[in-house]
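Duplicate of #3305? Posting structure anyway:
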């Protein structure tokens, strides 16, 4: 793998370089690259159902990557490609071959394209007052991109009561939802969001406490 490349943080449009270094005695004479998936839907518009099944079966095995897509020097081969589709080149293998034969087990790369964040976990109202609810969640996987967090606050009588977004780069989503009515039940719908989209929402209920009167009253 090329230095600085995170295979779980690849975005569409990135240039990806995979590095395969093979050691063997005797030294490998050939290093070859293969991919396990190939996206053909955009190139073929119409198929009968029987023809479609045959095409699918033909592409189930590993397919060789054209030699012009990679370079090999001594014991190291480098495959560079432009990420333009989530399926193409998602699973890539590298084989070395010498006078004795071909590698039994290849070097395997799994490239995970960036996507929407996972839903938040274990969202809880950990404290409350007569005017505010304090909410804490565990963040899910960010999809390989920077994420921020938001919460929609619903009150039955008025629909969406508040709309709070947290755009700061923090690792733990915490919300202070204030300006609420005393002794009222609220529905909190909490989500994570990045440039690829929004996660599923987690819904929890919270109750504000009774208002406290002034001393002497």
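Output from current build:
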């Amino acid at each position: 793998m090329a230095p600085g490349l995170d295979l779980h943080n690849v975005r569409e449009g990135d240039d990806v370089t995979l590095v395969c270094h093979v050691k063997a005695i005797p030294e490998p004479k050939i290093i070859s690259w293969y991919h396990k998936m190939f996206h053909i839907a955009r190139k073929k518009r119409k198929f009968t159902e029987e023809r479609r099944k045959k095409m699918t079966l033909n592409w189930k095995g590993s397919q060789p990557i054209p030699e012009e897509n990679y370079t090999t020097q001594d014991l190291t081969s480098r495959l560079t490609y432009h990420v333009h589709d989530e399926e193409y080149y998602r699973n890539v293998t590298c084989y070395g071959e010498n006078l004795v034969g071909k590698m039994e087990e290849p070097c395997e790369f799994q490239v995970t394209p960036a996507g929407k964040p996972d839903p938040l976990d274990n969202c809880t109202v950990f404290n409350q007052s007569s005017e505010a609810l304090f909410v804490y969640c565990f963040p899910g996987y960010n999809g390989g991109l920077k994420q921020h967090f938001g919460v929609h606050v619903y009150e039955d009588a008025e629909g969406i009561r508040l709309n709070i977004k947290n755009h700061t780069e923090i690792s733990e989503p915490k919300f202070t939802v204030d300006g609420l009515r005393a002794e009222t039940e609220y529905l909190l719908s909490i989500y994570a969001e990045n440039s690829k989209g929004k996660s599923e929402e987690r819904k929890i209920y919270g109750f504000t406490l009774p208002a406290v009167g002034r001393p002497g009253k």
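Confirmed duplicate; merging threads. Confidence is low (pLDDT under 50) at residues 1-5, 38-60. The helical segments are 49-58.
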